[in-house]
Amino acid sequence: MALTLYNAPQSTCSQRVRFVLNAKSLAFTEHRLDLFAGDQLKPEYLALNPNGVVPTLVHDGAVIIDSSVIMEYVEEVFPAAPQFVPEDPVARAKMRSLMRFIDEVPAPGIRVPSYNLAFLPHFQAMSEEAFRAMADSKPLRREFLLSMGRTGFPQADMDLSLKKLEQTVVRMADAIAASGGPFLQGTTPTLADISVMPVIVRMDDIRLAHLWDTRPAVGAWLDAIRAQPAFQPTYYTGSLLTEKYPHLRAQLAAAC
C-alpha cells in the first residue's frame, strides 16, 4: 500500500484529509505545496489534479481529488476503527446533508476573511498583469480572486461571510443539542465534524471565536476535537495562519 498526499499546511481542505489519515494511523508520504509559489499550477501537478487545488491523494497509483471525496474514499478503503461514517443509513444521510451544508456555506465563507486578513499583502505586491494571470490560471478560484482584486473584498462581502459563519455556528449548536453531543451526531465524530473542523479552528485563529460566545456547546465541541489524537499531527507547526503570517498575528494582537 502506498499513500501520497499532495497538500498545503494552511489549506483547510488539506487539514480535513490529514486528520482522517492520521486518525486511522495510515502511513503516507506528504508533499507540501507552496501555493503562492504556484506549485499547484505546475504541469506535473495539473496532470494529477486539473482543478489546480489541493489536496490530491494518490493511492497505489489511483488519483483521488476533492477533500470530501478523499475522506469518503479513505473511509471505504480503510474501514478499520476509528470509523467516521455511521452504519445506520438515516444517520449516514444526516451526515452527508451536514457535509453538503458545510461545503456550500462555511467552507467558502471562511475564505473571504482569510484572504483579506492573511493573503492580501501577497497579492498587493503583484502587478495587475501578474495578478490577473494568476487568477486566470485557477479554474475553481478565478471569479473569487477577481472579485477580491488587489484591494481586498469590500465590507459587504465580509459581512456576508460573517453571516454564513454565524449560520454555521447555529446549525452546529442545533445538531449538538439534538444528538446530545459533544459532536454533531453524538458521542463520536463523523466526517461532518472533520469537514467543519478547519473552519472553526480558522475562526478561532483569526479571533472570530466570539461568534459562539452564546453557544458554549460549539466551544466544547472544539475542545473535544482538539482532544482527538489526530489533531496535533494534523495541525503541525505552520498550519495556522497566525503561525505562517507574522503580520496577521501582529494585526490581530493590536486589535485586542
From TrEMBL:
Signal peptide: none
Record keywords, A-Z: Transferase
Molecular function as annotated in GO: transferase activity
GO cellular component: cytoplasm
Domain GST N-terminal positions: 1-82
Organism this protein belongs to: Rhodoplanes elegans
Name the UniProt record assigns to this protein: Glutathione S-transferase
Domain (GST C-terminal): residue spans on this chain: 88-248
InterPro entries: Glutathione-S-Trfase_C-like, Glutathione-S-Trfase_C_sf, Glutathione_S-Trfase, Glutathione_S-Trfase_N, GST_Omega/HSP26, Thioredoxin-like_sf
Source organism superkingdom: Bacteria
